[in-house]
Amino acid sequence: MFADRARIIIKSGKGGDGHVSFRREKYVPNGGPDGGDGGNGGDIIFVVDEGLNTLVDFRHKRKYAAGNGECGGKRNCHGKNGEDLIVKVPAGTIIRDAESGKVIADMSGDNKRQVILTGGHGGNGNQHYATSTMQAPNYAQPGQPAMELEVNLELKLIADVGLVGFPNVGKSTFLSRVTNARPKIANYHFTTLNPNLGVVDLEGASGFVIADIPGLIEGASEGVGLGHEFLRHIERTRVMIHIVDAASTEGRDPVADIYAINKELENYDKILSSKPQVIAANKIDVIADGEDPVSKLREEFEPKGIKVFPISAVSGEGVKELLYYVNDLLKTMEDEPIVFEQEFFPAAELLTGSDTGHTVNVEDGVYVVEGPQIEKMLGYTNIESEKGFMFFQNFMKEKGILDELKEAGINEGDTVRIYGWEFDYYE
């Protein structure tokens, strides 16, 4: 069964606690602190697996947790880091926050691997807190807590071309003729309940991937029938082949059918209605004598820039001309895959509700920033990476901390210290 949605709970690892201990040896009765640091918690990492094409595996398991970091030990022993958890998904999977529906990651294009939840940093052992006035600190830092999030996984098919049209107009028959896909075909509505993908191979051309989007009905954009289930899959396609029953075998007007389906596309997402379309006037092999519905379609739509091709998916008549036209049309378009931008940043969003409680002080010319939420954010962010540093900087800006530093008189090149990290300040 094709499974294109799932809801799961993911949890990163907790950071291990720092250790409190003191060096005690035979000839060193009053040694200094030697408590080790805790290990970092494991990350939740999503990775694209090209061998997967559905989300069916997530139907059987709903909770995914990375390993916790171990606590620090005596003699400066560092706790073991928790194991990362790799979650494999098919290409085209979108990860959304279940509550807000915002995009966390789109596993498409070049994005083959992304850390979704970062494990908590391990706490510092008491050796870090020794000073000239406090030579025997009895305090160690606890590890950062784990992050837990419920997410929706949504698989959007990645195809160059999408087939749209009313049920029973011949989309599955067309797909089976032009590709190696073998969809189930029967003469009743909604015979296709799951999207089908196929590869079109053209002699002397590169070919393309085509998806049979299950039959739409009026009201689909409002969720009538299985509308929303199907319309989601068209979003990534670059060109749509609109298949219509030119012979009106079920008594419908092909011109009215095209307008009805296009209205559903526009109601769902205006971007869909603006995608290039090609009309495949199907079933010309059973058009009654004396009728010429293809001319009517051409008169109505070709002045609008929509090319009409008379075809028979059963006999193959006109199919080759249609495919080469679509292939040439694809060549004129950008080949960049459609990737949804990230809207939800777990580390920042999960801390939004709590008060930063931060302070900005100047100590010996160094600007010291402290606060519980800032400390947590540091625990979830890899400051050593450029992306992580930029993310943390944006967090500081959104919380008004950069403005407070300016009010405190900071200048370019001055030093900012945040829980053991020191940065040079620049606009």
Could you give a quick summary of the protein structure above?
This protein is α/β, with parallel strands linked by helices. The chain has ten helices and 18 strands. The strands form four sheets. It has a six-stranded mixed sheet with strand order 10-11-9-12-13-14, with helices on both faces.
Q: How large is the share of residues in beta strands?
A: 15-25%
Helix count from the secondary structure assignment: 10
| Largest sheet properties | 6 strands, mixed
Counting helices, strands and paired strands, the structural category is: alpha/beta
- Side by side, the strands of the main sheet go 10-11-9-12-13-14
Cα-atom radius of gyration: 30 Å
Low-confidence stretches: 183-192, 223-227
What labels would you give this structure?
427 residues, alpha/beta, 6-stranded mixed beta sheet, 5-stranded mixed beta sheet, 10 helices, 18 strands, elongated
Write structural notes for this entry:
By secondary structure, the chain is an alpha/beta fold. Helix content is 21%, strand content 22%. The chain is built from ten helices and 18 strands. The strands form four sheets. A six-stranded mixed beta sheet has the order 10-11-9-12-13-14, with helices on both faces. A five-stranded mixed beta sheet has the order 3-1-8-5-6, with no helix packed on it. The model is unreliable at 183-192 and 223-227 (pLDDT under 50).
Q: Would you spell out the secondary-structure blueprint of this structure?
A:
Layout: E1 5-11, E2 44-48, E3 63-65, E4 85-89, E5 93-97, E6 103-107, E7 113-117, E8 148-155, E9 161-164, H1 171-178, E10 196-200, E11 208-212, H2 227-231, E12 239-245, H3 254-268, H4 270-273, E13 277-282, H5 293-301, E14 307-310, H6 319-331, H7 346-351, E15 359-363, E16 366-370, H8 372-380, H9 386-398, H10 401-407, E17 415-418, E18 421-424
Parallel strand pairs: 1-3, 2-4, 9-11, 9-12, 12-13, 13-14, 16-17
Antiparallel strand pairs: 1-8, 2-7, 5-6, 5-8, 10-11, 15-16, 17-18
